[in-house]
Structures are given as C-alpha cells and as structure tokens.
Amino acid sequence: MTHEPLSQHLERLVTVDGVRSLNELVAKTSGRGIFLVTILLCLPFITPIPLPGLSNIIGLALVTVGVRMALGLPMRLPRFIGAREWPQTRMKQVLLASTKLLGWIERGIKPRRATWITQPWAAKLNGLIFAFLALLLALPIPPVLPFSNALPAYAIILLSASMMEEDSATLWIAYAVGTATVIYFTLFFGVIVKFIIHFEERIEAFLRGLL
Asked: What is the model's pLDDT at position 20?
C-alpha cells in the first residue's frame, strides 16, 4: 500500500472535513496525527533555556501518550488538552501551518522501513522510550540546567517524526539523541548526589538552623 504523507491528509481536513479539537485531529488521521501534535507541543522547548511549569504539564500529558502507545491503546491526548474545542478559524490556521511544517519534515524524513519497525514489540518499545523521555521533560528541575527541556524535546520530536513516516534510519538517530539525553541527566544527578554526600554535615547543620 502506498504511504500517504500526513501533510496531504491534513490538506483534505482543512478543505473538507474540518476539525474541532486535537483529539478529533488524531482520530481523523487514524492515529498518525498524534505524532504531529507531540511535535508541536515540544517546539517551545527546543531552546537551551528551560521553561519550568509549562514543561511539567506538557511532559506529563506526553507520558500518557507514551503509555497508551506501549499498551496498544487508541491514540489520544488527555482531555484537558485533547478534548478542548478550538474556534474553526484558529484550528484552520494551525492545520495550514502544520501542513507547511510537515512538508518541510517530509522532505528529509521518508518511509525507510525495516522489518522490525512494524512489529508489535517495536511499537511497545518505542512507547516506553517515548514515555520515559516525556517523564524527563516533566521533571521539576530548576531552570539552572541548560538543555534540560531541549534534549528530551529533540528526542521526542525525532522519535515522533520517525514513527509518523515509518523511517527506521531517523529512528536510530532518535535513539542516539535519547541515549545522550539519559547520559546528560545521569551526570547531572550524579553531581548532585556527590555534592550532597560531600557537604552532608554542612547541609544538615543548615537545615537544623532553619528549624
């Protein structure tokens, strides 16, 4: 079966069907729209400066998407994001802008299928990876650590784009960025643990002073 670019599907929705909510968009694209939505939700976080508060909310919403993916459940966003109805003019603007974004993505990310990428276990694995990366995005880390939002966001964007277009080559890049993200966070928390151990007595004395 010929693979239809998602951008073409969106063009039909703009001109024919119309869409009122993000979950309706996901449903009318047979679930593929969830990858577009996750890309759009991650775009605010691609700068080095973290966005605490917003990243916690969006990250937790994306965790539920990854869990549903891993469990093989129908794709949808939590109701507080996905079920909210948008004005038709605003939704049309979003869809038109998304069509242009997808056109740019589809020029570099194309169906490059490998046998394993369509297996059920691969979908479950990718769902778990997606949920874990979203959890890293949701962590309440003070905005002193650069790229604490950007690295998980880039990994999620690459993972979403590769699954959307069934591109096994880009999927390996997503795995690499995801691995780098885990290493970055591990090093950060390792430094925090060493700091606490080294200054344990001073920290304890400081806390006692507060009491």
From this structure: 82
In the three-class reduction of DSSP (H, G, I as helix; E, B as strand; rest coil), residue 17 is classed as: helix
Residue 140: phi and psi, rounded to 5, are -80, 65
Contacts for 8-14 with beta carbons within 8 Å, 24 or more apart?
A: 10/36, 10/95, 10/98, 10/99, 10/102, 11/99, 13/95, 14/92, 14/95, 14/96, 14/99
- pTM, full prediction: 0.85
Give counts: helices (H), strands (E), the chain. 10, 0
> For helices 168-198 and 150-165, what crossing angle results, to 10°?
160
86 CB-near residues (< 8 Å, 6+ apart) = 20, 21, 94
Contact 163, 171 (CB under 8 A): yes
